[in-house]
Amino acid sequence: MSLTMYDASVTVFMHNLQQLSYLLDKGMVHATAKGIDPATLVNAKLADDMRPLSFQIQSASDASKLAVVRLTGVAAPSFADTETTFEELKARIEKTRDYLKSVPREAFAGSEERQFTMKAGPTEIEFVGQPYLLHFALPNFFFHVTTAYAILRHSGVDIGKRDFLGRA
Asked: The dihedral of CA 69, 86, 82, 46: what is its sign?
């Protein structure tokens, strides 16, 4: 059986969003144990010119949803980016996973060759499905998941590689 676009996208997004939720659980436990206001972690950044943890979660959510929309044409819910607590961020992850679960495998038929235009600021970029997924969508998604992990780790949360990877 060959690897499908569904397998290379939805299953990867689903697993890693689940791990992201798990990392947030570890962040909540850390905040409670150390007497840290959870908002401190939600707003934590790696550098002054970077976006906070909340933005990284929102962006991982959006990156996965938009990749599936672009590959399949199946509309996704829009989220307002107003999450300010661990609970709200975890709920966003779950809503994203619910959307991903709702997209049938069959919707990805022919998505390897699907052509579309994506706007990035004032620039329009032409893409074809498979190269888009492999060279833009997945790296973008993992940038935000990894940055969220790094913010939590940098903030003292006891997490490591196994927490990031989870079980296959």
From this structure: negative
By the 8 A CB rule, do 58 and 83 touch?
yes
Q: Which two tokens stand for residue 130?
A: 């498979």
Q: For residue 102, give its domain range.
A: 5-106+114-165
Q: How many domains is the chain partitioned into structurally?
A: 1
Residue 6: Cβ within 10 Å count:
19
Per run of 10 residues, the mean pLDDT along the chain (length 168 residues) is 94 98 98 97 97 98 98 96 98 98 97 93 95 98 98 97 87
Q: Which conformational region is residue 110 in: left (phi greater than 0), alpha (psi within -120 to 50 degrees), or beta? A: left
DSSP class of residue 3?
Answer: P
pTM score = 0.95
Domain at 126, CATH number: 1.20.120.450
